[in-house]
TrEMBL record:
GO terms for cellular component: external side of plasma membrane. Belongs to the SKINT family. The gene is LOC106097116. Pfam families: C2-set_3, V-set. It comes from Oreochromis niloticus (Nile tilapia). It is found in: Membrane. InterPro entries: BTN3A2-like_Ig-C (IPR053896), Ig-like_dom (IPR007110), Ig-like_dom_sf (IPR036179), Ig-like_fold (IPR013783), Ig_sub (IPR003599), Ig_V-set (IPR013106), IgSF_BTN/MOG (IPR050504). This is Ig-like domain-containing protein. GO terms for molecular function: signaling receptor binding. One of its GO terms (biological process) is T cell activation. The chain crosses the membrane at residues 414-431.
């Protein structure tokens, strides 16, 4: 095969040492016709045709056994033809015909999908010699197809293509086979043609604000949509085009400005019927219904995108009175509006004050609530904020110690404060007494 290495095998029946003798490989019709001339133990390079320079060798360690085979590296189409091996000193020669082949795997495309019929095209390039193209059904029977078109390129390689129209049936497996009998090469590709093709998308997708999201849509029949129209719109938007893929590229001028540089389709997957849309850095305004339509096969489907936002709640101790503690939980930056729950250490709901909800100018919600709990041993309290539509939940825990711990700390603090005050009073009294004694001494000295 073209590009491979090949050995033209030749062997003297009598194991004659030909290493020091002349072994001449020629190709009649070539000028000069010498492919490889082995003389006196080496290649005579200056006699060799330039197209074979550095591409041939004999097996020198095998020459002593009469093996005069020739190896050609990186075979070209031009290498095809008759080769003659001659050993003059024993007047022996023989010929070998080298056939060079080239092959590639065919590609099947869906050209049209209308009503109950599908038109398929199979194409395969890079063949040599000229191959034949066949269409087969699931049982291996030949299908009646259009004529095979054959093109021969400047590199002498052949490209073949053909179309066939098939009915949409259950388990309709179609094969395109390209084969070349002279080189014994065959390549084939399969495609399944089911019933009427339809677009499959989920009904809803959830994304968190700031994340990237994929709106998944797939044609059950792997239709190549890369060069066709795939239109994603958002009803109610003006203009309503989110992403218009036409003739292999995004039609930027039709796109709504809020989606500029934030959308893409998976171009390498379009050939497989994957028409999913990716939206980057999701905003709250992206929430809503999206519709994907493929006009040329009259298919469309809708997806509802729900956008969410969440944050971890913060618990604060608002007051500690006697045997009770008042706690406040607050969580900002939620969307849609969440609910706030207080739970005890066993996961039971606590009776709490009403939840206060504020909606900011950015449309994000802040929720807060207070609860009063008793001081008990191992009193673990949880504040949970959750949003069921987006399946988001965040929670924070706090430990409220028992009554014995908090009550014992209060007398200690009081005793320390009292001792501190007593010390200050004693110091002031002492300072006053010393000050009076100093004044009396000064008066006596003045009288004297």
């Amino acid at each position: 095969m073209m590009g491979d290495d090949v050995v033209l095998p030749c062997q003297l029946k009598l194991a004659v040492d030909t290493n020091a003798e002349t072994v001449n490989w020629t190709k009649p019709g070539l000028d000069p016709n010498v492919v490889h001339l082995h003389f006196d133990g080496r290649l005579v390079f200056e006699k060799q045709n330039p197209s074979y320079h550095f591409r041939t060798r004999v097996f020198e360690d095998e020459l002593i056994k009469g093996n005069v085979s020739l190896k050609i590296f990186k075979v070209k189409l031009s290498d095809e033809g008759t080769y003659r091996c001659s050993i003059p000193w024993i007047r022996e020669e023989a010929s070998i015909v080298l056939t060079v082949g080239s092959a590639s795997t065919p590609v099947i495309k869906v050209m049209s999908n209308v009503s109950s019929r599908v038109v398929l095209q199979c194409e395969s390039a890079g063949w040599y010699p000229e191959p034949e193209l066949l269409w087969l059904d699931g049982e291996g029977n030949l299908l009646s197809a259009g004529p095979t078109e054959t093109l021969r390129g400047p590199d002498d390689l052949y490209t073949v293509s053909s179309r066939v129209t098939v009915e949409k049936r259950h388990s309709n497996n179609i094969t395109c086979r390209v084969q070349q009998r002279n080189t014994n090469q065959s390549r084939e590709t399969h495609i399944h043609v089911p019933g009427k093709s339809h677009l499959v998308c989920p009904s809803q997708v959830v994304a968190m604000m700031g994340d990237d999201v994929v709106l998944p849509c797939q044609l059950k029949l792997a239709v190549d949509t890369n060069s066709e129209t795939v239109n994603w719109i958002k009803p109610g938007l003006d203009p309503n085009v989110v992403h218009l893929h036409f003739d292999g590229q995004l039609v930027f001028e039709n796109q709504h400005p809020s989606y500029h540089f934030r959308t893409r389709v998976f171009e390498d997957e379009l050939i497989k019927g994957n028409v999913s849309l990716k939206i980057f850095k999701v905003k709250l305004s992206d929430e809503g219904t999206y519709r994907c339509s493929i006009p040329w096969i009259r298919e469309e489907a809708s997806i509802v995108l729900t956008v969410g936002s969440a944050s971890t709640p913060v618990i604060k101790v608002m007051s500690v009175v006697s045997s009770r503690v008042v706690l406040q939980c607050e969580s900002a930056g939620w969307y849609p509006e969440p609910e706030l729950l207080w739970l005890d250490g066993e996961g039971n709901l606590l009776s709490a004050g009403p939840t206060e909800t504020l909606r900011g100018p950015d449309d994000l919600y802040t929720v807060s609530s207070r609860v009063t709990v008793e001081k008990r041993h191992s009193n673990n309290i949880t504040c949970r904020v959750q949003q069921r539509n987006t399946n988001q939940s965040r929670e924070t825990h706090i430990h409220v110690p028992g009554e014995d711990i908090s009550d014992s700390t209060l007398p200690i603090c009081v005793n320390v404060q009292a001792a501190f005050l007593v010390c200050i009073i004693v110091m002031l009294i002492t300072w006053k007494l010393k000050q009076k004694q100093s004044d009396h001494r000064t008066d006596r000295q003045k009288k004297i």
